[in-house]
Amino acid sequence: MAYQEILESTVGIPFTSGNTVEVLKNGVEIFPAMLQAIQEAQHRVDFLTFVYWKGDIAQRMAHSLSKKAEEGVEVRVILDSYGAAFMTDGLTEMMEESGVEISWFRPFKQWKIWKTDNRTHRKVLICDGKVAFTGGVGIAEEWEGDARDPSEYRETHFRIEGPAVRGLQSAFLENWIEAGHQLDSRLPRHQYNGERFSDREQAIRDVALQVVRTSASVRWSDIVILYQTLIVQAQDNIKITTAYFNPNQPMVELLCKAAERGVEIDIMIPGKHTDQRVANIAGSDRFNELLQCGINIWFYQKTMLHAKVMIVDDVISCIGSANFNHRSMLKDDEINLIANNEALASVLLRHFEDDLTSCEQVTKGQWERRSMWQRALETISKPFKQEI
């Protein structure tokens, strides 16, 4: 099937070829790769994150960015005013004293209260315009380690080389400009020119990538169109891993129609370990309909599951910062990449299968026997569903 042509027609963004992608699983792989890229940068480091809290990695990241600025490298950082509100004291001051230029995305202003609910949920690191990172990771102790226990989140992040880095750069610049800055005329100096930043053994070569960024919308966005296109075009299987699952009714109907035409669908979400209990409850009121359609739902029980990955027909991978919920689809600035590459999908499928060993499946009988308290919480959450 011509997935690439269909996605370009519906989303309106062309794929680029010749990209290199490395899948990074959990903080034990993610943070060393990010810190190495910063260390090797020679001209500019751009860093955008939603979560920046506390812990060893919060200190190490701040010191690494500060060191590059002291070496004369231009370092620009965007922190979401909500997601980074509980950052360790003194880190921003230390970075600014070292020459790091820090901007806060949508600071809270009482007279612009309508903006406070729309955040930048993007996670982007770009070094010299040659190598970039994106995915779901936050800069906090919760993401350190290897998801061995509930104190270490299960996460997936990606290291990108190639022309797709330009799309990630544009996502950074969109938020940078909104934060009050002007476009820099020096930007083209360090763009990707075909060379490899490094030769990493686990990297997957020649990946076709489509970069889709989205911002707050009244009722529609490119992420909505992207998700709907992937579901409608699926022929054999769909595997969704998401930290927050809260689809609207049209999306539920599309998933059920896909299941009815024979597409095997598996949805993996956090189980007993979650940092957003209300979000889980709000999404669970759709479980009965999904289970009746024959869709498999899995609760990941080992720790908080924070990855955001969709795999379609063992070949198309949708990766990035967006969850499968209303907030990612309409309220927050997000960045997703769509990869047309079987080798990349194979790695992600292997991770999915590994994660299934730490899951409990939700069955129709089990869900029909759920407690009255659970049912009551689902009912109570419905009026607030669109706000999550």
UniProtKB/TrEMBL annotation:
<dbReference type="Pfam" id="PF13091">
    <property type="entry name" value="PLDc_2"/>
</dbReference>
<feature type="domain" description="PLD phosphodiesterase">
    <location>
        <begin position="116"/>
        <end position="143"/>
    </location>
</feature>
<protein>
    <submittedName>
        <fullName>Cardiolipin synthase B</fullName>
    </submittedName>
</protein>
<dbReference type="InterPro" id="IPR001736">
    <property type="entry name" value="PLipase_D/transphosphatidylase"/>
</dbReference>
<dbReference type="InterPro" id="IPR025202">
    <property type="entry name" value="PLD-like_dom"/>
</dbReference>
<feature type="domain" description="PLD phosphodiesterase">
    <location>
        <begin position="301"/>
        <end position="328"/>
    </location>
</feature>
